[in-house]
Amino acid sequence: MTNPFSWLPAELQGSLLLGLAVAALAMAKILSTVGNGLASKEEGIPLGIMNLEISWSTQRAESIVKAWKKRGVIERAVQQTQLDFAFLFIYPAVLSLSCTMISGGGNGTALILGNVLSWAVLLCTPFDAFENFMLLRMLKGTFEPDIAKLTSISASLKFLIILVTLLYLLVMVFMR
Q: What's this model's pTM, rounded to 2 decimal places?
């Protein structure tokens, strides 16, 4: 099985990873800055936009949006979600290339798992894009039946793939 970066010479993979990692960190900082003020423990929104991503129910999603409107930060949530459309192309590439590079010299199970995860983590892009489209609908006041549930399923699948990928990378780092 090949990986998504088998076309790229190994000597260029490190440079690409460094560039993508810097871009990912910059975007993460921008998203954090824009999203500043969305979190509120008092209102039961300790994780900011992530609380809307995994709200699971229309009632919960509506209460989050209502709280943000009341505090005048709804546009921050919209802007953060819009900016996330750029980020969703960067972080999966970072994780995918990391899996490719860390498993590149290996064999057996570690290599197979690295190749599988290097492809699987790219699924975060469509999951995150779908989630963002649904978030924007909710932030604009559209609460169709199951919109919060579908958004939460998409976000949960994305987070699960990210978690498994990060665990793989962590284990591989400590096995070396």
A: 0.94
